[in-house]
Amino acid sequence: MNTHSPLPALLLLQLWVMAAALNQEGVLLLRAKGGFEIPGDSLADWKSGDPTPCNWTGVFCSSGAGGQPTVTKIDLSELNMAGPFPAEFCLLPSLSFLSLSFNYINSSLPNSSVLPCSSLTHLDLSQNVLVGALPSALSSLPLLRHLNLAGNNFTGAIPDSYSLFPSLQTLSLTANLLNDTIPPFLGNISTLRQLNLSYNPFAAGPLPRQLSNLTNLDTLWLAGCSLTGEIPPELGRLSKLTNFDVSSNFLTGEIPDALSALTSVVQIELYNNSLTGRFPAGLSNLTALRRIDASMNHLSGPIPDDIFSIPLLDSLHLYDNQFNGSVPTTAAMASHLFELRLFGNQLSGPLPASLGINSPLRFVDISYNQLTGEIPRAICGGGVLQELLLINNYISGGLPQDLTRCKTLTRVRLANNLLSGEVPAGIWGLPNLSTLELANNSLSGSIPADIAGAKNLIKLQISDNQFSGNIPAGIGSLSMLSELSASGNRLTGRLPESLRVLGELVLLLLHKNFLSGELLTGIQQWKNLTQLNLANNEFTGLIPSELGDLRALVFLDLSGNQLVGEIPIQLQNLQPSQLNLSDNQLSGSIPPLFMNRAYQNSFLGNPSLCRDPTGNCLSSINGARRGRSKFFWLLRSILILFAVVLIVGLSFHRYKKRKTDMAKSGLNNSDWILMTSHKLGFSECDISRCLQEDNVIGSGASGKVYKVVLGNDEVVAVKKLWNSPDMDAVAALGKIRHKNIVNLWSCCVERDSKLLVYEFMVNGSLRDVLRGGKAGALCWGLRLRIAMDAAEGLCYLHHGCHPPIVHGNFNSNNILLDADFGAKVADSGVAMVVDGVEKSPAFMSVDAASGAYHPPEYSCTRRFNEKNDVHSFGVVILELITGKLAADTEFGENDLVNWVCSGIQQNGVKEVIDSRLDLCNKEEEITKFLSIGLLCSSFLPMSRPPMMKVVKMLARLMEHS
C-alpha cells in the first residue's frame, strides 16, 4: 500500500500551472527583477502567479495585436534598486518608455543591451552610477526622441554616431565624467530641442558655432563645461531658444549684441565667467525674457537703462562685477521685478525714490556699493518684500515708516551705513523677521516693547549706535534668538530676568554700555552660549557660579565693571579661549588652572586679588596685620629680600636655558601670543623644545606636524604653520567640541613661528594606515565605523556650527585614528585660518595641494563649499573600499573615481575591493557602501547629498552590518 500523500505533487503541479499562466513579457520582467537588489517590498506585487504583468508596480500596458495587452511603459524610478542594466527590458517588443532614474544601476551600458530597444521613444537612466563609454548604438534606435543619461559616471567622448540621431529631441548628458571637447557635430541633430551637457570635465575648448544650426533648440545648457573664448554671435539665430545657460566657464570677451535677437528667450545665465566690457543694450526687445544672471564677471560701465524696460523681467543678478554709475531710475518701472541683486559693484548715488511702488519686490540686495541718499519710502510697496540688504554703503536718513507694514520681511541688513534717527517701533516687532542688522550707524531711541512680536527673530545686531534705555523684558519671549549684539550703545538699567529662558542663545554681546545691577543667576538654559561679553558696563555684585556650567562658553569678558567677591572656582570647568575679568574689584585667589601664561592678562586691575599660586598672598583683602613687632617686620623683610634674590637668580638661569632652547628650535620668545581653549599644563617653551626634525610625524599643505611629549608625559600634536593664522578664525576653531573632531587646544604665535596645539591621536592618519603595515587590521566593520565617525564630524561642521564651517581640505590624511581606531576629523577649517580670507558661511578659498580629492568644479570656481567637502568624503569612502590612495601614481592622469568606475565596468564590483578584506557574506553591504561613495563623489554638485543624509545612509548600513 502506498502511504505517500499526493498533496506535494499536486502543489508542484499547481505552482507549475500558475507559472505557466504568466505570459512571456511577465517572465522577462521577473528575470530582470532577479538581477536587482531591491530594498523593502517595492516590487512585492511582481508575482509569477499573475497571468499578466499589466497591474504590477511601474508597469503600464496598452492593447496590442489581437487586442491583447502588451507592456509599453516601465517606470521604476526612485526605488533605490541596485544592479546592472536589465537587458531583458529591451526584449519587450512594444516597450516605448523606460525610466530607471534615481537608482543605483551600476554597470556599463553595452551596445548589445540597448540595440534590441527598437521601439523606445523615451529612455531615462539619469541619476545612477553607470560607468564606461556612452553606447554608440543608441543613435540606431529609429524612434528615440528623449535620451537622459545625466548624473552617471560615463567617461570618454561623445560618440561620433550621435550626429546621426534621426528623431532625437532631448539629449541630456549632464553631470557625467565626459572629458573630450564638446563636438561640433552635435549641430547636425536638426530635430534637437534640448541639449544639456552641463557639469562635465570636458577638455577646454570653444563653444561650437555649429550649434547655431539647431534652429529648433529651446534649451541650451552648457554650464561648467570648460568653455573658453567668446560667445559666438551666431547663436543669435536660435530664435526658438528659451533657456540659455553657459555659466561657470572660462568665457571671455564682451556679451554679443546678437543675444538681443533671441526673441523667445526666457532665461539667460552667464554668471561665473570672465566676461568684460559693457552690458549690451537692446535687450528690451526680448519680450519673453524673465531672468538675467551675469554676476561674477568683469563687466563694467553703467547698467543700461533699457534693461528694466524688458516687460516680463522678474529677476536681475549683476552682482560681483565692476558696474558704476547709479541704479537707473527705470528700475522703479519694472512691473514684474521681484529679485534685484546688484551687490559688490561700484554703484553710487541714491536709489530711485519710487523703487518698489510698481514692482512686487521680494529680494533686494545692493550691498557693498557706494550708494547715498535715503532708503526709498515705498520699497515694500508691493507688500511682499522678504529681504532688504543694503549693508556697507553711505545711505543716510532714517528707516522708512512704511516698513512697519511690511509683514513679509524676514531679513533686514542695513549695517555699516550713515542711518540716523529712531527706528520705527513696528519694525522691531515684525512677525516673520529672522535677521535685523543695524550695526555701525547713528540710530537712536530705545528698544521698544514691540520687539516681543518678532517671534521668529534669530539674529539681532544693533551694536555701535546710540540706542538708549532699558533692554525690554519682552526680549525674553524671542525663543529662537541665537545672537543679541548691542554693544557700543547707551543702554542702561538691569539685564531683564527674562533673558534667562533664551535657550538658543549663542552670542550675548552687550559690552560698552551703561548697564548696571547684578549679573543674572539661574542661567542654566544658556547651554548653547559660546560668547558672553558684558565688559565696560556698571555691573556690581558677584560673578555667578553658574557660568561654570555653560560648557559651550569659550569667550567670557566681564572686565571694566564693579564686580566684587571671589572668582568662582566653577569657572575652571570652562575651556575659554579668552577670559577677561580685569578692572573690577575682585578679591580672593585666582583659581589654580588660570595661573598660567595664557591668562596672564585676564585679571589685571583687581588690587585685592591674590596672584600667588599657593594662595599665600603678601597683601590680602584684609591688608597686612597691624601691631606686629618691628622685629618680625624686619625679619620678614630680610626673608623677602632673600627670596627675591633667589628668584631673580633662578629666573636668570631659566632665562639663559630657555634662550638656548629657543636657539636650538629656531624660536624666539620675545613676542608670543598664546590663545588657549584647553586647560593647559604646559607652556610654549615646553613645546618649543620638542620641535625637532626627529619628532616630525607629518607634513601637509598648511604646515608640518610634530609629536611633542611634555614633561608631565602628556602627548600633544603641534602643527607649525607655513603662514600666519587668522586669530579670529583660530578662536572660532577652538570653540568646536565634537567627539569626532580633533580638539584644537591652543595657538602660539610669534613673529617667526605659528603653532597650533592639538590632542594627539595614537594611530596616526587613515592615509598612513592604508599604505602601511596596519592596513590588514582594518576589517570591513572597522572601515565602515571609520567612515561613520568621519561623516559625523564633517556633518557637525556643516550642520552643527553657526555659521557652518567648510573643511576645505578633507582627505584621508586629515582623518586621525585613536588607540581603538576611532576616527576624528583634523584640520577643520585650517585653510580658513591660514588664508585669511573672508569667512563666509558657505564658501572659502583653499590650498590646491589635495587635488586628488577636489571636485571637478573646483578647477572652474577655485572656491569651496559644503558640496565640495561631500565630494572629498566620497573619495575617502572609495579609499576605504579599494585600499588605494586617491593620489596614487598608478592612476596617472586619471583619478580614483574614474578608476573605480572603469574597474566596475570591466570586471565588476569585486575587482575594486581591497584584496585584504574578507568578503564573507559582506559583498552586498560593501556594494551599498560603494554606491554611497560614488553618490557623494558625483560630478554634479546638486547630486551630492548633504552630510546629514550621508550619516543617515551609513547608519542604516551599520544596522545591517
From TrEMBL:
What are the record's GO terms for cellular component?
plasma membrane
| All copies of domain Protein kinase, residue ranges | 691-961
Q: Which domain of life is it from?
A: Eukaryota
Q: Which Pfam families match?
A: LRR_1, LRR_14, LRR_8, LRRNT_2, PK_Tyr_Ser-Thr
Membrane-topology descriptor: Single-pass membrane protein; Single-pass type I membrane protein
- EC category name: transferase
Q: Which residues bind ATP?
A: K720
Q: State what protein this is by name.
A: non-specific serine/threonine protein kinase
User: What species is this protein from?
Assistant: Apostasia shenzhenica
- Encoding gene, per UniProt annotation: HSL1
